[in-house]
Design brief:
Layout: H1 5-18, H2 29-36, H3 40-53, E1 56-59, E2 63-66, H4 71-95, H5 98-117, H6 120-136, H7 141-157, E3 158-160, H8 166-182, H9 185-200, E4 203-205, E5 215-216
Antiparallel strand pairs: 1-2, 3-4, 4-5
Helix pairs in contact: 1-3, 1-7, 2-3, 4-6, 4-7, 4-8, 4-9, 5-6, 5-8, 6-7, 8-9
C-alpha cells in the first residue's frame, strides 16, 4: 500500500518541530525514505510541501535542508498570529455550529479542571486543541490552514513557559467561548486579542542570534483585563 505524501509530510514536519533534524541540516530523500519506510516519491512530494510552508529550503549543491529562520521572521509569526487568531474568533461567533460549541465548552471544563491540578503538559495540549477547534469554527478552511501552519512554526521556533496563572488563562478561554456562543463577534475578537498578546509574552526564541539560549519575546506585555470586557 502506498503511503500518502501528506502522512510523510506530517511525520517530517513533526520531527523538524521536535528538533530531530538540526536547523540547516540536509534532508536527503534516500535517508528520509528509509527512516519512514516509504519510497522516495512521497518524500519528494513532502519536501516540496514543507518548502512551501517554510520548514525546508533548497540549496545549490546541497539539496533540501532544514530552514534557518531569522529572529525577525520568528517575530513576524507571533505578530501574524495576534492578527489572525482574533479574526478567527470573530468569524467563529458568526459561523460556529452546536458541535463546535460542545467541543469548546468541554475543552474549557477540562482546562479549568487540569489548571487546578497544575498539569502543564495536559494544559498545553488542551490549549492547542482549543485554538484548533476555534479556528475550525470560523468556517474558513484557508484561515484554519494558515493558523495551523503558524502554530507548527511557532512551536518549532519558540519554547513556551507555563503561564503563571493557568486558571486565569482558562477563564479567558471560557470568555471567548461565551462570546462565540452569543454570536458577539466584537467581544470574541477583543478577548482573543488580549489573550493572544499575553500568551506571546511567555514565548522564548529557541535560537536567538544563532545561539541556544531562549530569549524573551518583546511585546507590550499589557495584562489582560477581563473586567473591562464583561457586560
Amino acid at each position: 500500500m502506498r503511503i500518502p505524501a501528506h502522512s510523510v509530510c506530517t511525520a517530517i514536519r513533526d520531527d523538524i518541530v521536535a528538533g530531530v533534524y538540526e536547523r540547516g541540516g540536509r534532508l536527503t530523500e534516500e535517508l528520509l525514505a528509509r527512516r519512514y519506510g516509504v519510497s522516495r516519491v512521497p518524500v519528494r512530494e513532502a519536501l516540496r510541501t514543507l518548502e512551501a510552508e517554510g520548514f525546508v529550503v533548497t540549496r545549490r549543491h546541497a539539496g533540501a535542508c532544514v530552514a534557518e529562520p531569522t529572529e525577525q521572521e520568528a517575530a513576524d509569526l507571533l505578530e501574524m498570529r495576534m492578527l489572525l487568531e482574533p479574526l478567527g474568533a470573530a468569524r467563529a461567533a458568526q459561523r460556529r455550529t452546536e458541535a463546535h460549541l460542545k467541543v469548546l465548552r468541554g475543552l474549557v471544563r477540562l482546562g479549568q479542571e487540569r489548571s487546578r491540578r497544575g498539569n502543564s503538559e495536559d494544559l498545553r495540549s488542551l490549549g492547542g486543541w482549543f485554538h484548533e477547534t476555534l479556528a475550525q469554527a470560523s468556517g474558513s478552511p484557508a484561515l484554519t490552514s494558515t493558523l495551523a501552519q503558524l502554530r507548527h512554526k511557532i512551536a518549532w521556533m519558540y519554547a513556551v513557559e507555563a503561564p503563571a496563572n493557568p486558571a486565569e488563562s482558562w477563564a479567558e478561554h471560557g470568555g471567548i467561548v461565551d462570546a462565540v456562543a452569543r454570536g458577539d463577534s466584537e467581544r470574541a475578537r477583543a478577548i482573543t486579542a488580549l489573550h493572544t498578546e499575553r500568551a506571546s509574552a511567555v514565548h522564548r526564541l529557541r535560537f536567538p542570534g544563532g545561539g541556544d539560549r531562549p530569549e524573551r519575546v518583546r511585546t507590550s506585555q499589557r495584562p489582560v483585563n477581563m473586567t473591562g470586557l464583561r457586560h
